[in-house]
Amino acid sequence: MFKRAAALLIAALCTATHAAEPTVRAAVACLAPAKWYALEGGKPRAVPEAELIEDMARREVVLLGEHHDDADHHLWQLQTLAALHAVRPDMALGFEAFPRRVQPVLDRWTAGELDATGFLRLVEWDKVWGFAPELYLPLLQFARINRIPVVALNVEKSFTEAVGAKGWDALQPQQREGVSRPAAAPPSYEASLFDVYKEHARGRPGGQAASVKDPAFRNFLEAQTVWDRAMAEALASRAKGSGAARPLAVGIMGAGHVQGGYGVVHQLRDLGVTRIGTLLPVPADSDCSEIAAPLADAVFALPAARDENPPPRLGVRLELRDRAVVIAGVSEGSLAARSGLQTGDVVVSAAGVAATSASSVTNMVRNTLPGTWLPLQIRRGSTTTEVVVKFPPKP
What is the CA 113 to chain-centroid distance, rounded? Predict the structure, then answer.
């Protein structure tokens, strides 16, 4: 049960994977494209980039939130990272994408000992993350050419899944990967996670909305706070460092771990890190009633994308598990959801070609022309069936 809920949580709070159909936004917009806005008051306040970057460079930790599959978010992260590096070159760059066990590979990458192909293979990218690597490689290349230490922030999925299934107290100390007990979630964070959990419960056969005191939800909540705590600990250990010159620790992670002062921010404060910067990209046409503190310290207004030929998207998160490509999450309202794909489905083949990795399926989807069909062979439990995904024609 937890694996399904965790996948839904990833889609809802962290990846914010876009549905196939555009979202209609409110007309009350107040942000100018390509500008920074501070959110300390009742409404966004335009602030010069140099002023904002100087402020952030004096922090201990700066968190750059993202929607994992949004290319513009990663370009914004690269731009912001370069600006911070120009002011404070002594830094460390942490990624949610990597579990702690691959830290030696990250060290080899920073030292220039690996090419991109070898690096992605050794970190088991398709298995541990699964999003298109080209979205993250510019950030990783920036770290390599500037010899910025790259830090693994995450833990093994099996760890958080075990907490979600049994609770923190049921795990032996040696199973916790050195992570300390998380600080209790603030009530508002708990409420937002409960909303996600209720949506999952309604989707189960015979499911119903649970109470916040339900043991299953408590385990679910603990798993999320463990996830936040692990990343906070990794950043805190770099930010505290040793000696007078301490590096700026920059975190690359899902927006759900950053926004509202919850998630990683809350765990960092519990660890004694108080000078934290939180930055997020938002669409320039956002409804400004939704852009206010405590969303983040500041936001960058992204201009609307004008790509006439955006790559097709299914709206799924793929993972490689035991050499099988598994759908770990399906975005609500996406093409995948409308086609009947479900969390836990195994993709056996796409257009008759065996699915050997998450990227092989992603590339097949991206190469599908508008208005055409993509047959997928899916294994669900003990049954193998074919699902035909019908891509809408180009508008």
Answer: 27
Determine the 3-state secondary structure of 357 from DSSP. coil
Helix then strand count (H, E) for the chain reads: 13, 14
Alpha-carbon span 6 to 165, nearest angstrom = 11
pTM of the model: 0.80
Helix (H, G, I), strand (E, B) or coil at 376: strand
Contact between 112 and 145 under an 8 Å Cβ cutoff? The reply is no
Torsion of CA 375, 381, 383, 389, to 10 degrees: -20
Give the pLDDT confidence score for residue 206 in this predicted structure. Answer: 45
Sign of the torsion angle spanned by Cα atoms 28, 296, 153, 156:
negative
**Which residues are CB-contacts of 382 (< 8 A; sequence separation ≥ 6)?**
none
Amino acid at 82: A
Helices (H), 65-203: 71-87, 103-110, 116-122, 125-128, 137-145, 157-166, 187-202
Domains in the chain (CATH in brackets) are 2-16+28-302 (3.40.50.11550), 316-390 (2.30.42.10)
Q: Which residue has the higher pLDDT, 309 or 21?
A: 309
Three-class SS state of 211: coil
Query: CA–CA separation, 278 vs 283, rounded Å?
Result: 17
Q: Say what the pLDDT of residue 87 is.
A: 97
Query: Which stretch of DSSP H or E encloses residue 323?
Result: none
Top-confidence residue, 272 or 126? 272
Using a 10 angstrom Cβ sphere, with 0-12 exposed, 13-18 middle and 19 or more buried, the burial of residue 226 is buried
